[in-house]
Amino acid sequence: xxxxxxxxxxxxxxxxxxxxxxxxxxxxxxxxxxxxxxxxxxxxxxxxxxxxxxxxxxxxxxxxxxxxxxxxxxxxxxxxxxxxxxxxxxxxxxxxxxxxxxxxxxxxxxxxxxxxxxxxxxxxxxxxxxxxxxxxxxxxxxxxxxxxxxxxxxxxxxxxxxxxxxxxxxxxxxxxxxxxxxxxxxxxxxxxxxxxxxxxxxxxxxxxxxxxxxxxxxxxxxxxxxxxxxxxxxxxxxxxxxxxxxxxxxxxxxxxxxxxxxxxxxxxxxxxxxxxxxxxxxxxxxxxxxxxxxxxxxxxxxxxxxxxxxxxxxxxxxxxxxxxxxxxxxxxxxxxxxxxxxxxxxxxxxxxxxxxxxxxxxxxxxxxxxxxxxxxxxxxxxxxxxxxxxxxxxxxxxxxxxxxxxxxxxxxxxxxxxxxxxxxxxxxxxxxxxxx
Length: 436
Known about the structure:
With about 425 residues, the chain is an alpha+beta fold. Helix content is about 35%, strand content about 20%. The protein has twelve helices and 19 strands. The strands form four sheets. Strands 3, 4, 5, 6, 7 and 8 form a six-stranded antiparallel β-sheet that branches. It has a six-stranded mixed β-sheet with strand order 10-11-12-15-16-19, with helices on both faces. A hairpin with a 5-residue loop joins strand 17 and strand 18. The protein is globular and about 80 Å long. The chain starts with a helix and ends in a 9-residue tail after the last helix.
């Protein structure tokens, strides 16, 4: 009897615990559901929006459109470094960049030491012809000091419709001198593929080693590379240096087009995987096969090698089609989908990640080179000056001689490696081995 009473008490207690636990679980789940309710949170957003719009002390630029745009920027920027809400100007700039042409001055700028600094004027551009030099700091636009203006806003003011004018004032750090240029904007066309001299001649040296630098993966990069390879092949190229240093990436389709030029048809180049199964994809080579007939390739990379450039590097590295030399790449391996919105706005959202043929993730990891070959800050600065149109001409005679003496040690190592591979391959041919 006592035993039955004990068992009965235990069953009652278990049932009570289950009931209480279930009640807590459902209450907690209900509260979580309420907190994440779309309608409830949209109402809170609408409430704050109206409160700011009507009661904030300063009513300058407090339109609903500007407030919503700012809110969307903040929301999307909090996701990851690559997702972005774009207003009409930002969206147009993105389209211009990927199409490889835009209305502007033809000067590449970045923020350096708190100044908007000219990295390089492009060949035969308004900035180049006027005498804007690498290292010039842009301090005024149309007579107005730009101060701490964000770089993106400066770029917007420099770009514009072709045949319109803009006056920029630059400061030269070496002398402190300020100089103003009134420039007429023009259509700026960017060469995506260049030779060792920054041109499109693609000369071949006595060792039959070709050199191609891909600046960016924009519209037409694959076609430009095709033309470069044809020029080199007609000269008898036996090996290739593919320079992807400081290449920020670009379009996936162009990366696939570049990669498939060195691979057999049907070979996996890259795959994508996302939260939405529709984002999962596999891209394979669809060309006519390896255009270089398995001739040796060395790819040069550094921390400025990113995105589409990492896809090409990772693919050819995984498949042992190329030796990678330099430094670990940037590590940007995500798919950005573009969603056009009203008002000319657009949303650039990370929707998937890229994977190399061996299923290595690129994002945050980068591609480690087969041969680690760092360069010094001095070597890097000299190389960038040499690459910049008018870079050497902007230096004093003494500094120019100093920069000209500094060698590209990474390129030299790539050349030496390819010479060794070619020499060994020639020695291994039948009839070339000495009899014992």
